[in-house]
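Our platform keeps sequence and structure together, in a single record for each protein. Such a record has a labelled line for the sequence and another for the backbone structure tokens. Nothing more is needed to write down the fold, since each code stands for a local backbone conformation. For reference, a complete record is included directly beneath this paragraph:
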Amino acid sequence: MTLRKSISTPFSLGLLLALVSFGLLVQCQVQNTCTTGNTSICICPDQQQGTRTCREDGIFGPCLCPLPRTEQTPAEQTDPQEQVATCDGGACGVESVAEPVAEPVSEPVVEPASEPVAEPASEPTSSETAAEASEPTADGGGQEADPAESVGDIDCNEVCQGGTVCIGGVCKCPTGQTLCDGRCADLQSDVEHCGSCGNACGGTTSACIQGKCQCFFSNNKYTLTGNLGGGVGAMSFSADGKSLVVATNQRQITVFQAGGAYPLSFQFPDKVGMDNASGISFGKNPDLFLLTGGSVYPYTFSMSKKAREGSPIYTRPHGISGARSTKDDKWAVLNRMDATTTPPKEPQIWAQNEPGASKGQKIITMTGITVQPTRMLYHPDGERLFISFADGQVLVWKNSDWKQHQQLKQDSRILRSLTLSKDGTLLAAGTDDNSIHLWDATTYQYLRTMSYSATFSFDVNSVNFSPDNKWLVSAHDDGTVRIWDVSSGKQVHLLAGHRLAVSSALFSPDGKDILSGGNEAKVLVWTCR
């Protein structure tokens, strides 16, 4: 009994081990048999166990090996899928698989020799892919942006300096400008960088015009005094361009002979001018001009007689602006709104019905206008009157029916000055805030604003076009005279010779000189002759 029991026990254990081994062998054979979708265990190059899947062509795919465990940043942990390395012939790429990796077994599985596995070509590694992406293509595609020009994810509007602006996430100079010494410069007009960066025009007598340093109304060769008797209030050339008439704020009128050194021609014998004269207007007749401003009645003056003509053309004071037509010599006087009454009296236009008639005045009340007018002038066509106001608007009236036909307005700044080009195609208005508005006087289309930066706001007291319409000259309360490029709206030169406010600045009839006058009782002539 005892012997039989001792013999049967080892036999039973041996039988059990044989059955278990046979089961494992069958399982391994099943696992290593390539059936589409079947998964098999394989050995990775680092001796770890991986898995591979049988493909539809009856061949096992590459061995999928787990990557070494490394610390990941929060950004790298956003992908819930586990990353594994695709190992094929010793080269490992990266794949993401949603299914968990099979648990490793205790013994490696040997593949049957009868089933050779044809491994596919190795997949490119992540470093190879990045290298290919960074190579430039024939058309320039695939190139990375220069990190020196990019400001990344920050708002470059907050870091752009020197006049640069944020364009596509990069600080760049506006179109037509170049970055020179840390700031954007227009090489066509910048006196410090004229034509090229660092090419400075010498001194204050040279300007940068179209990329070249040159004299540009830069030299103050003449000073006209002629016993003016007070600060200059208004200036104008006669219709034929032969005489310059200067009216002062001390009721003095002086006429200079135009051309050459502008020698003194004559003065009116008595003080027939206006207190704070604001406008001189010539019509078709070069001998007659209309003087307005201050608190004295407007008169027509004759240069040949050196006296005013007859009785005042306007029988009420406060004619703040007047105009004569260069087409037919008709005149018109603008009367300010009377705000002392209740309700305020609306502005009026006193106009001459027929050319040459001393009387025959027509009074036009500007119904509905509740703001002060500032300037008025005739268009060269003799049919339209342009009137500016203290609320920034310009109204166009026609003398055919004496009704308003057009309204122009860019902003609400007070308009201090108004001018038309000689051919009547351009209209400019100076404001009380260092800026000048420009319109097309034919289509009434707004063109642009010309302005400069200053700590304070200054009145633009006078604006006038050059004979060829290329330039515009302006007189300012800060004592400066500025020249502007009409086509671009950019300031091209600044004339600094006045110590006090400048009330008037204009071009000579031939366009070769600029004359400016102000509170210093003198007229400066700027030229390159």
About this structure: The radius of gyration is 45 Å. The longest strand covers residues 82-88. The CA atoms of residues 415 and 431 lie 4 Å apart. Confidence is low (pLDDT under 50) at residues 1-7, 24-31, 70-153.
